[in-house]
Amino acid sequence: MTVSPPIWMTPAAYRRLEEELATLQALVAQDGPDDVQENAVAVRAARRARIQQILEWLLYAVVDESPPDDGVAEPGMVLTVRFDRTGDTETFLMGVRGAEYGDVEVYSVRSPLGLALLGARVGDRREYTVPSGESMPVTLIGAVPYGMHRQDA
């Protein structure tokens, strides 16, 4: 049996997901069982899939427990990375895509970049594979808990 890891999210993201869940559940309840048009069936299936996804996120959510400010890449941390081949940098939250944090780009822990960086410390160099199969080197140059990142801007 596979157990999902805890999913870090802000209280605002948690509330938005609860609101979206309530809206989707109301829409599904209103769907008529007689409506078998292809589009209606597809919409109903998409709503149910999104409901399932949100329920899983809420079930494993860790809300407002900021990780320690120790420079380690983990969920709830805003990471700044340097793409070593180009020298470009990017800052993003390691969190849950689709939970809408608003002020910062989000990368999932399960994404290739997220998996490569998980557990990295500032200064660590890691590699991840892009869809073309090419290995890309990246260096973690910053990691601060969500909320503290605005103080660094």
UniProtKB/TrEMBL annotation:
Gene3D superfamilies: Transcription elongation factor, GreA/GreB, C-terminal domain. GO terms for molecular function: DNA binding; RNA polymerase binding; translation elongation factor activity. GO terms for biological process: regulation of DNA-templated transcription elongation. Keywords: Elongation factor, Protein biosynthesis. Residues 70-139 form the Transcription elongation factor GreA/GreB C-terminal domain. Pfam families: GreA_GreB. The keyword Protein biosynthesis applies. InterPro entries: GreA/GreB_C_sf, TF_GreA/GreB_CS, Tscrpt_elong_fac_GreA/B_C, Tscrpt_elong_fac_GreA/B_fam. This is Transcription elongation factor GreA.
